[in-house]
Amino acid sequence: MLDTLASLEQRPLSLSNYGRAHDSPSCRVEPTGVPGFLTSIISSSLSWIEGEDARERIWTAASTRLSERSGRTAMPSMMRTFEVPLLEGQTVVVELHEPSLTSDNLGFKTWTSSVLLSSRLVSLSRYLPKSHSRVLELGAGTGLVGIAAACVWGVNVTLTDLPEILPNLRRNIDKNLSLIQSCGGDACALPLDWSDDTNFSEADSNRYPVILAADPLYSPDHPQMLAKTVQQWLRRTPESSLIIELPLRPGYQHERDDLKRKLVDLGLEIAVEGYECGSEDWQGRMGEQAEVECWWSLWRYKASAPDA
Ligand SMILES: C[S@@+](CC[C@H](N)C(=O)[O-])C[C@H]1O[C@@H](n2cnc3c(N)ncnc32)[C@H](O)[C@@H]1O
Questions:
Q1: Mutate to test the pocket of ligand 1, among 15, 94, 106, 248 (most ligand atoms within 8 A of CB)
Q2: pLDDT tens-digit series, residues 226-263
Q3: Which atom of ligand 1 is least distant from the CA of 111?
Q4: Whole-angstrom distance, CA of residue 227 vs CA of residue 258
Q5: What was the pLDDT predicted at 252?
Q6: First CA to last CA distance, the chain
Q7: Ligand 1, residues at Cβ distance < 6 Å
Q8: Best substitution site from 161, 190, 230, 252 to test ligand 1's pocket, by max atoms within 8 Å of Cβ?
């Protein structure tokens, strides 16, 4: 029975460099009926099996298989790997720790937009300012995009998020630091709350020529907070670039439009944009793999924008 339960394991899918899940799930069993099978084991006394220890191992294995089918929120902490393309066809593998998802800590999971944006960095290189040795990431979460940018572009990236996200973010930077440095980059994590006006950076030299943000929009307050943060931290030169990737969640069209309007009000315009599809990283109860459509865009100050 333990062998059967082991064969039903669902691991996090490895994500290829285009955000598509490799077709290598460990479980090749027709998913229909599996949750019912697992529940029947958990609710059984297993009285025909000798030894409390053996019964415990079976209950534990069945519960684990069921939690793997109950969505990401039911899962324990885990290490995951992400393959990121570099210039000239090479790749690096970034290793990230994802804590269990408690309360509202959305920064403890690596979202599809991040996976797609980390793979897009190579092709965005040609649009970047000639001198972009400093890069800021907003709402970095587990750190995939910032760590990838440090590797792909060989630059110094400041990854920022809310204070409660920083311990895991720092852990992930430390884990990948030798990889980042071998690519000529560097990275650190700092708290930056978009709602905190005291972050204000007065000197232009303190600002960043490149800002990155993946999936930062899920509240009606976010467009205003993000636009203000971009205004505070994006260097006011025509070459400076804001790069954003957003999932096209149906309930958030208003927030996306609002953010676009507010960025235009700041004097920014879209230099290049596109749509792409990635996989949701976890299969549903029946083994289905949802697709996530995303929009990426690179913004610059209009030539006519004040101080640009
Ligand atoms: C959906 S997650 C995306 C995380 C990561 N960029 C990714 O795509 O995997 C949104 C991130 O924004 C951060 N965030 C939310 N509100 C914030 C605020 N007021 N200031 C700074 N970061 C915030 C969250 O902590 C979280 O890490």
A1: 106
A2: 999 999 999 999 999 999 999 998 899 999 999 999 99
A3: 9
A4: 10
A5: 94
A6: 67
A7: 106-107, 110-111, 113-114, 139-142, 161-162, 165, 192-195, 214-216, 225
A8: 161
**Residue 144 to residues 4, 49, 95, 104: CA-CA distances in angstroms?**
35, 46, 9, 19
Residue to substitute in 73, 190, 215 for testing ligand 1 pocket (most ligand atoms within 8 angstroms of CB): 215
- Nearest atom in ligand 1 to the alpha carbon of residue 194 is 20
For residue range 87-110, list pLDDT tens digits in order: 888 999 999 999 887 666 889 999
Residues in Cβ contact with 152 at an 8 Å cutoff, skipping those fewer than 6 apart: 84, 85, 86, 87, 118, 121, 122, 125, 183
Long-range CB contact pairs, 247-252, < 8 A, 24+: 247/111, 247/112, 247/113, 247/215, 247/292, 247/293, 247/294, 248/275, 248/293, 248/294, 248/295, 249/218, 252/217, 252/218
Q: How confident is the model at residue 201 (pLDDT cuts 50, 70, 90)?
A: low
* pTM score: 0.82
Residue 229: both structure tokens together: 């943060």
